[in-house]
């Protein structure tokens, strides 16, 4: 990894490391395990500290950007997957876009909160600029704020949860309802916060969108997550 890597996960069980990538997938054979607590390194105290929602928001308010590890950067990355493949390490809150020459562009992400994590192999089925946000029926049923947009929130609004770009994840020809998209809550990058979608800050999702083709393979890894499809 590059210099400036300043975060870690306190994991339930140590994942198996393959090269520069932590393979954190696990088939769920029973109740979901508790997701790991995100931590970041405090350079002033030289200690690892929990990075929860409150601290994340305070950090963003002070710095107007996420911690250094979650900022877009080119890293060494060994994989057999072809360039253009997206590999998501949900435990570490990183999305890797595989590049030629043993490298990848790494983006910080927010992932599914407890009970909404998932793992699997899907593909980018379509892409949209300024996408319309239509909450799924399950979200409409549990979230009054989502219910008023059951028919869809137009794209381009500053409060649109999908942000300026969205990549829709398909299994075969079927929409999984999961997306890679922007966010109106940039301080949540690095946290388990979503309903299963993968969120990036808006500058990063615009950059990723410009580099990714429809049909690109997407591999989602998350320890203890429900298995959407076999990997």
Automatic annotation (TrEMBL):
The keyword Hydrolase is assigned to this record: yes
GO MF annotation list: glycosyltransferase activity; peptidoglycan L,D-transpeptidase activity
Active site (UniProt): 181 (proton donor/acceptor), 197 (nucleophile)
One cellular component term from this protein's GO annotations in UniProt: extracellular region
GO biological process, one term: regulation of cell shape
L,D-TPase catalytic domain location: 84-221
Keyword terms, alphabetized: Cell shape, Cell wall biogenesis/degradation, Glycosyltransferase, Hydrolase, Peptidoglycan synthesis, Transferase
Pathway field: Cell wall biogenesis; peptidoglycan biosynthesis
Family: Belongs to the YkuD family.
Protein name per Swiss-Prot or TrEMBL: L,D-transpeptidase
Organism of derivation: Rhizobium sullae (Rhizobium hedysari)
């Amino acid at each position: 990894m590059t210099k400036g890597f300043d975060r870690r996960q306190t994991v339930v069980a140590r994942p198996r490391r393959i090269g520069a990538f932590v393979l954190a997938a696990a088939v769920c054979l029973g109740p979901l395990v508790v997701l790991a607590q995100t931590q970041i390194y405090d350079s002033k105290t030289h200690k690892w500290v929990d990075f929860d929602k409150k601290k994340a928001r305070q950090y963003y308010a002070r710095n107007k950007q996420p911690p250094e590890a979650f900022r877009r950067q080119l890293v060494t990355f060994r994989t057999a997957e072809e360039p253009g493949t997206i590999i998501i390490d949900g435990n570490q809150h990183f999305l890797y876009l595989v590049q030629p020459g043993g490298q990848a562009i790494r983006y910080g992400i927010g992932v599914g909160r407890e009970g909404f994590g998932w793992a699997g192999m899907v593909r980018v089925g379509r892409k949209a600029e300024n996408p319309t946000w239509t909450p799924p029926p399950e979200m409409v049923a549990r979230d009054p704020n989502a219910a008023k947009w059951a028919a869809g929130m137009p794209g381009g609004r500053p409060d649109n949860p999908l942000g300026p770009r969205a990549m829709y994840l398909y299994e075969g020809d079927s929409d999984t309802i999961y997306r890679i998209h922007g966010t109106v809550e940039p301080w949540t990058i690095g946290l388990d916060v979503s309903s299963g979608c993968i969120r990036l800050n808006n500058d990063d999702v615009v950059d990723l969108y410009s580099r990714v083709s429809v049909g690109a393979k997407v591999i989602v890894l998350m320890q203890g997550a429900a298995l959407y499809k076999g990997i």
